[in-house]
Amino acid sequence: MARLPVRVRRLLVGGVAGLVAASVAPALQAPVARGDAPADAPEATVFSRVDVDTVPGASFTVVGEVFAGEKNLVVSGYGALNSSGAPQGGGTLQVYRPGAYIGQWTKVSVITPGDGIVFPNQVTLTDMDGDGDTDLLLPSGYFFDRDQPRSAITWWENRGVGADDVARPFVRHDVITGQLGSYHGVQHVDLDGDGRKDLVTTSEAGRVAANLDDDIVALQVFRGLAGGKFAAPVTIGTEGGSIPVVADVDGDGRLDIASSQYFGTGSMADNPTRASFLWWRQTGDLSDGIAAGDFTMHVIATLAQTGPGFQIRPVPDFRGDGRTVWVGTNHTGRCTFSTPQPAEGVFELTPGEAITEPWGITRLSTPANPDPSCPAEFKNDRNMIFPGDDITSRAVPGQAAPGVFGYGDVDGDGDIDLAVSGDGDHRLFWIEQREDGSTRLHTLTAPGERFGQSGGAVVADLDGDDAAELVFSSFDRNAVAIWRSGAPLESVVVPSTLRVSGAGTVRAGQQTDLTATLTGLDTQVPAERPALRVTFTPARTGKPVLRGILALARTRKGTFVGRWRERVAQAGTYRFHYAGRKNDPLMQAGAASYDVRVAARSVLTNLSVPRKPTSKKRVKVSGSVLPAVGRKVRLQRSSCVRKRGERVCTWRTVKTTRTSTAGRFSFTTRVPRGKSRWRVVVAADASGTALTSSVRVVRRR
């Protein structure tokens, strides 16, 4: 029997390489009402798309608080693949920090291809070192590496942000490296109750993709040790799947492990009773360590019932009655092979009175107009989007549907809905929970829109508007995008605020120190550094002169600061101007200006007056004035007379001149015999303040 589609899901990309897009889809799609509703039903929910970034081989996305007070997106990317779908090198991991609105994100690179992490998979957000912040626990590895042991579990220490609000580099810590089996998901939880958190994961080696019998599956526990270290892995079972979940499944107060199963099942025809969904019940005493005999496996559903499983997870209060409900997705392709396959679907899995017996199965993913037939044109065109409403994998070996799912109130009606990745289906979906308890499958993506092989399916309120957004990352499209309810975002201009402090009155020729602070729209990443145009308008001429460009540095979120230092030659007005930011298609920063008036305190230098007695009738008095150009300078002599027995002195202007362009002035004047007193007076004008020199005495013999 031919191997089931997606022995690889997105990993056997030999048949998928031609589907991978080179660029992100348009940033915004026209709003589309998804799904048909009966006449008496409420109006269908409308969604619009906002793109976040292009990530080569975008795979998994999770949402959480990595940096304090933020809702961050954490996205892994597989990177470049060769023609057979195998990784050519390392992948990437990035954290996105929110900006001023839902479409604005700043990327923080955690790992690059140079770090050598092959196929980084689903990150777990958890405090690994007990310092109170969120670190990144990263499983990695390629399912079909055969004899290349490149899989690993690493964690990346969060060192927070600096005073400038720029994230510090994450620090790598290795749990295990050089493994053959791929690690797809890992849980950080105190499984044995000793006060230290352990790691629970599944190692899956598919080895030869076409061979159903060479898979190696190991459900593993890494026991937590002192100092944040972990013991070597203990294999507690050889059945399970990529993303195990640790929870008290049977309500006995002890933690169990639930999992879907895709690898290690063999063919469905030969093994119809093999588990597609299963759980491992804790039955042993873990106080003296964890061993294989401490957990007993029980079947939830079989291959014959659902086909291979992709994901299972608990959904709290799914039915609004306080109970936790288990939901799972299978991973099949009914249109790929002639041998009948269970239809692609999402299922509610409900235990009966005997929880250790197989559970009840309810299909949740039925659309308003189900039509599971496989048209010939669809089976012959792998790029074709299925023409019906059912979740349907493209008819290509190596592909299957659906994939990951998330939960939350998608349509804002107060109950829990599901967001679903089509994975091998080009589309995205959501499942509406209705008032009568029934569910209805809707297509999230717009008609003709492709976003296949997606991770994420996160339902979260990212912008604090009390409405949930849906986050997906598509391997096919190399893209990360958000779907929000309502019409597309409209372009708006957010005002910027500019303030400049310092200045006042400055001694001419000395340096002024002005500090510019720009606040408002936080659109700038540190590398961009908003800039201000600085002009100076002399009070004397009224003609502005460009003095330069001031680049601002980010000091905290939404605040940029720069210092302007320049020698002041004359009084005038500095203007600092921010032109705004225009390259964001949806939200622009408005322009802002700020004027600073500077008064120049006049300075008299190099004043030359004869100090020694002279016999000359004429003497020269010279000096320099700042501010310089065209200043009116008076040479004055003291004249004294006696009035009513008292000596009264007044200053009389003897000569007047104006300074040169360099601020120089010079007088030649007659001096009387004997001792006379002189001074220089600079008149106030637009360029500088008034100034009077000290008194100088001239003695003529």
From TrEMBL:
Q: Which domain of life is it from?
A: Bacteria
Q: Does the keyword Signal apply?
A: yes
Annotated signal sequence range: 1-29
Q: Does the keyword Ribonucleoprotein apply?
A: no
Checking InterPro entries in the record gives:
FG-GAP, Integrin_alpha_N
Keywords attached to this entry: Signal
Question: What's the name of the protein?
Answer: VCBS repeat-containing protein
Organism classification, top ranks?
Bacteria, Bacillati, Actinomycetota, Actinomycetes, Propionibacteriales
